[in-house]
Fold:
Amino acid sequence: MDAAVTTVPTPAAEAARPGAGAPAPAPGGVRPPRAGRASRPRAARRENLAGYLFMSPWIAGFLLLTAGPMAVSLYFAFTDYNLFDAPRWIGLDNFTEMFGDARWRTSVEVTGWYVVIGTPLKLAAALGVALLLNQSRRGQGFYRAAFYAPSLIGASVSVAIVWRALFSDGAAVDRAQQVLGFDPGGWIGDPDRIIYALIALTVWQFGAPMVIFLAGLKQVPRELYEAAQVDGAGPWRRFWSITLPMISPVLFFNVLLETIHSFQIFGSAYIIGSQGNACGPADGTLVYTCYLYVQGFENSRMGLASAMAWMLLLAVALVTAVLFWSQRRWVHYEEGGR
Amino acid sequence: MSLVHTKARRWNTGSLVWHLGSLAVLAVVLYPVVWVIGGSFKPNDEIVGSLDLFPTDPVTDNYRRLADGIADIPISTFFGNSLFLAVGSVIGVLLSSSFAAYAFAKIDFAGRNLLFALMIGTLLLPYHVLLIPQYVLFQKLELINTYTPLLLGKYLATDAFFVFLMVQFMRGLPRELDEAARLDGCGHLRTYWSIVLPLCRPALITSAIFTFINAWNDFMGPLIYLNEPEKYTVSLGLKMFVDQDGVANYGGMIAMSLVALLPVVAFFLAFQRYLIDGMATSGLK
Structure:
């Protein structure tokens, strides 16, 4: 899914509880009996029938396009499969080949670099601008919309093409760095620097997390700041002691989603790097999914590509688990749970 | 509160500094946009090298050349294909997601909590794990180079984000409404169609716009599933342009890029409030 699409979570506990906010169903999902209803077992049966009727497209999609493919993908990961001959079981060979492959390690490195540098920069920009905008002043809505716009178009092929032009030899970015006294040369042709063009593109799309930060900032009670000001707390202190703890659930959510999305970058890397071959000069933008695409669809190594996909899933799951584990230490949910 | 309010409506030094700061950020963010618009009116050899934002002698050659199409295919073909996919996706997502969301939010059925947890789980699942087996599935069904693989998931509510968005919205609707409907003898289907769905308009609009824009921008799906240029979407048409002309024809490429973004920009300008509010408020209630 596209990186521009995000939403704000209620605390995770709530997310796992459908119908919250409505009268809580008793354990087992059976609601207390109510006057004017048909006998309970029959009513419950009817509810079940209706429920599964409404759920049927989702269930079909889940089985056919999510759960089934996941199981198949796990099987493929241990086979040699080229799409035309039957898959051949080869045990762990795909994984040993993958770990021994220098290009695979490059792709891990490029992606890691992209995630580790790009995500914090993007979130820092998002939070910084959100703090700047979080004042009820005329024009706030306009700035918010203008800063958000790049998030909608940033993942498109069009913007990737523009980026290629902007960061190529002699173009604006090259000129700017010459003025500042850096080495001349565009970033697009340079395997070591092209990744920064890609990082700049993700930072440019800081608007989506910014909107979420802004929504979080609006929820912080004004009284807290007024009280702190009375107590003599400066702006810095107010930020660390009030703002940051109060928006930590939103921060957690943004970190989680942006990190997961960063791992899956594909289209922009493919286009920015495409010069004859996909994914950059000397593999400069060979992000993980790019290499997965090359192995799966250019080299017809479906088994190997599946194994790679599972490694990506493991990495994402690991990062998610670590983030959820760490949130106890730094994410503050308001008393009362909501 | 009143203190904040009076401050907000008066022009003073603070407000000036604030606007200067915001404008500075805006200049950085909009620079690439202005540059590319100006560039699209420059002669081809001036685009990369020149630092001027706007051309001294504006030319429209870059746009006029688009009439030749890409690889002998008129660009209207690509636009038609993208439009078909985007509209088809919107219809599918609205129907299937609201269906599932209604069940999650309004029906007490056995196993609801488990299915909801699974749905939330798919929200975080990297799409790439499904890429290969889905491709193999559609290949066995001989559906490669058709639009079915790109649309089927939309009609089966696989975009968990939109289901989640609508569940959140439906939970916020007063329960008395659908209970009253029930007492009047409305079945679930009636309640869904005549009561809940009309009240969900803001969530539906947000979902529709995001779906349209995502389908319009999608690159990986068409790249994998379509292999006949006549069926290409705008994204693939652009990629073909890049492969074919490379750096030799920046003018045509960025002109085409701008034209390709027009529908997205139009949607944004028309509906930005729905987009931003939909994104910011779902779940923050």
